[in-house]
Please model this.
Amino acid sequence: MRKLLVLVPLLFVVTLAAQDYPKAEVFGGYQFTHLGNGADVNLNGWNASVTGNLTKVFGVTGDFSGSYKTISGVSAHVYTYAGGPVVSLNRDGKINPFVHALFGGARFGASLSGFGSGATNGFTVMAGGGADAKLNERFAVRLFQADWVYYHFSGINESKNVRLSTGIVLRF
Model:
């Protein structure tokens, strides 16, 4: 009986130690967005996400971004907020590749100084992936994240869009 009392907690500790993947990751960094479909406009901005890893390979991500451009005095911005599944290798090595599919909303707005502004809400889908380089147990660098981005605003479909991101990942 004594051996059993020692063995059960020891197995529990070994199981916890074997979970060598981060339970949560917070990303923040730079974003470059190219809008296609004839617009051929490049925007710069920020990208942030929070990922909860449910297992070593599967998690759920919430992604938020803002991108901006001024053309001929018109200031435009696109904000996105999306979430969805992520599949990650979370290997013991230094590089952690991942893929994700994100679904959510988008807001496009524009303003012309002295003439007012307008905005519209829509739907977005992002599909892509990237790779993080582990620096230590708590920090990684997102080497790249590349996403195909679909926007739907009031009957207008934009499907030839690309988003590239890079930055820092905090791992918990």
